[in-house]
Design goal:
mainly alpha; 12 helices; 77% helix; 0% strand
Length: 264
Amino acid sequence: MKSAMHDALVITKRQLLQLARVPELLVFSTIQPVMFVLMFRYVFGGSIDSGQSGGYVQLLMPGIFVQTVAFTLASTAIGLAEDMKKGLIDRFRSLPISRGAVIIGRTFGDALLNILVLAVMALAGYAVGWRPTSGIVQTTLAFVFLFMFGYALSWIGILVGLSVKEARTVQSVGFLVTFPLTFVSNAFAPTTGMPRALQYFAEWNPVSTMVAACRQLFGLKNEFGATANSWPSQHPLETSLMYVVVLMAIFIPLSIRKYKNYSN
């Protein structure tokens, strides 16, 4: 176990060094979320009634945060597929390292990148008027929830990358999964304007519950859902934690098994 963790940390270091050697990857990883913040803040900010004190930006930032970590699924899948295409996975197979270290190290690396991206986004949000009102402890807990959610989704990305393998196809599959989840949710606008069926979908959508949990932790009024007394509406924190645990319990074993089968 200790040896496997050491091997995973070595792979994580390799991924971080790759960011240092190709700074364009780091630049574009941070620029895109900041662009979303600016566009949604100034394009939709005047046309959507948030119902929150402080205006639309208070409603927006938790949604942008969750959308960004949700895209970890696609970025992890694409990165792994590119490594497979370049033959790096075959090279790792020839080394005396733990079989699961390669994918564990990749998820660690993507998780660390998420920390940096979220920090840059928080600064951008603060610059355009976002102000959490709940205090440092709850605000920090919100970012911990975001980190955990992104890490859980990265394991889905691992399974997608190992299953599809072709980077261009992986990109399509990744965005096909993440776009409906992020936009059929309460991330950017209230769900009350959606058809009733979509309201129920949005209510149980993991993105919606995570957004609601973050808004609650940031000190905002928790309002979403087709039914006011539903479990996700009343308990977004517990529901989000449940989703994170279930996703990791399902996709970590599946991904490790898939990688071992690929390696054999």
